[in-house]
Write a structure and sequence with these properties.
The chain contains five helices and no strands. The chain is mainly alpha-helical and 88 residues long.
């Protein structure tokens, strides 16, 4: 899944910084709904990653029943958090 396509799909724009707070909240709600419905592991992981970057991801033990998926999510979290720290 392409990041910009995900943004357009759930938020109607690839410029998320331009959204009003209520538009952001509605997009996050759509993202959460799709995450709950998604059965494809790769797509589910991509949705979780986007939700994590927006501060809206469910806890790993709730989101992923598979230990390998939880480990991959932890790796993603560490990578994103490290990059954020480097930008500060």
């Amino acid at each position: 899944m392409d990041f910009d396509q995900l943004l357009v799909r759930f938020f109607g724009t690839d410029d998320i910084a331009s959204l009003a707070p209520e538009q952001l909240a509605m997009g996050i709600e759509r993202l959460r709904l799709q995450f709950g419905l998604e059965r494809d592991g790769g797509r589910r992981f991509a949705l979780w990653c986007l939700a994590y970057m927006l501060g809206a991801a469910p806890d790993l033990d709730v989101a992923f029943s598979d230990g390998d998926d939880r480990d991959a999510a932890r790796d993603f979290m560490e990578t994103i958090d490290r990059e954020i720290d480097e930008d500060d």
